[in-house]
Amino acid sequence: MMIDLTHSIHEGMTLYPGTPDVILEKVFTIEEFGFMEHRMAMTTHTGTHVDAPGHLLKTGKTLDQFPIDQFAGKAGVIPCHHLKEIDKEHLEKFEMLISKTEFILFYTGWQKKWGTPAYFESFPVLTPEAARWLAQHPLKGVGFDTISPDLTDSEEYPNHHILMEQEILIYENLTQLEKLPDDVFMFYGMPVKLDNTEGAPVRAFAEIITVPKSLSVPPNTSVCNVSNAILVSGNLI
Ligand SMILES: [Zn+2]
Known about the structure:
disordered C terminus; alpha/beta; binds zinc ion; globular
């Protein structure tokens, strides 16, 4: 089963304060030209998107410098919707999950405020101590259902820096995280393939693989891919 974790892109959509508006303009119509085509204009940090280290670090990598497998992997979600800030003590409760995954997503519930001014206000963020603890893990990326891992009035962007210095990708404006299981699933956050950019819109989605009990296989069966790994253990390894 696939779960779409992506907001739609449209004119008038929610944008980071100060970001130029999205343009989706029909430039060819079937009636006049026999085909339909749109011209689109948006910043690379529009909607559900990924930040590469080059977004804030002068010598940081751009997206094209990562192999495609950087954008997919085993993932877990950490519930944070009851918190004002996400501290190290909260993350430590999920250390087992963090240690067996490549992506950690933070469910704050802020997606419900998408399209309203409240989306930009007072959302839970990691404390710098929590971000530093998290960044010690060999993660490919982290994701948030908020506009940023730092508050919008932050001038230093401490959590961006801490994560980017470890080359951990940052996914922003995810949605539907409440639909994810509390066990491991597969996350895909595929950016549009742009050269030399520090970010790009993504189609982010989760793949939840449930295996009928009748298909279970004996232990010690060799595995060659993630789906088989689930068959062996009942959980992703
Ligand atoms: Zn961004």
